[in-house]
Amino acid sequence: MLEAVSRPDMDIREVEGLIKQEASILYCLPRYLNSPMFAFSYEIHSVRHALTILGARETRRWIRLVALISAGMLKSSDLVLSALVRARFCELLCPKAPKGKSDLFLVGLVSLMDAILEVPMAEVLEKIPLDQHPKTVLMGGAGPLRPIYQLMLAQEAGKWEQAKDFAQQLHVSESEAGELWWAAMKWALQVRSRT
């Protein structure tokens, strides 16, 4: 399912078919759509209807969230929460990222998949089609996304001097970085309670 939604030309019929094969995901979809993140005043009639309402971007996000949480069922809930916080924090930093098509939400989300699945990061990245910049940074290499990734790690670890340095590289103030981290934490707690 992660592979299907990570393709640039996502096939909504394929995604619908995959969702219909997973009872737990079918259960989560209405709960997600009825969360405070959406204010739908009408009923969802089918999986296809739900995916159409969500649109491609939100469908990708929702599938990734459910996949992460499902993969982390037997892991510490703190590990899953950390991945959610990382994903949202990276997404909130999108305006500060170098121009490109990299999905920073996915970068943050995948950054802990090796720990959650107990497989090497290289193996995780074989299964998820990502462009070169996210792959490079997730494998520990340098590149244009490195300051965002490093800021994420520094914020998470409470390494404020390092966080300050990386934030400056992105033209983000210390306080703004802290506010974005707090917003990401609140969002992650809300999502975890809804899935």
Structure description:
The protein is mainly α. The chain folds into 2 domains: 1-71, no CATH class; 75-195, no CATH class. It is built from 12 helices and no strands. Helix 5 packs across helix 12 and helix 10 (146-157) packs antiparallel against helix 11. The protein is globular, with a radius of gyration of 17 Å. The chain starts with a helix and ends with a helix. The model has no long low-confidence stretch (mean pLDDT 81).
In terms of structural class, how would the helical and strand content be classed?
Answer: mainly alpha
In DSSP terms (H or I, runs of 4 or more residues), the helix count works out at 12
Separation of termini?
17 Å
Helical amount among residues, as a percent range?
55-70%
Gyration radius, to the nearest Å? 17 Å
Number of E-state strands:
0
Domain module tally: 2
Unreliable residue stretches: none
Largest sheet: none
Provide tags for this entry.
single chain; 195 residues; mainly alpha; 2 domains; 69% helix; 0% strand; globular
Provide a brief overview of the structure.
The protein is mostly helical and 195 residues long. The chain has helices spanning 2-6, 12-20, 23-33, 47-71, 77-92, 104-110, 113-117, 121-127, 132-138, 146-157, 160-169, 174-194. The model has no long low-confidence stretch (mean pLDDT 81).
Write the layout of secondary structure elements.
Elements: H1 2-6, H2 12-20, H3 23-33, H4 47-71, H5 77-92, H6 104-110, H7 113-117, H8 121-127, H9 132-138, H10 146-157, H11 160-169, H12 174-194
Helix pairs in contact: 2-4, 3-4, 4-6, 5-6, 5-10, 5-12, 10-11
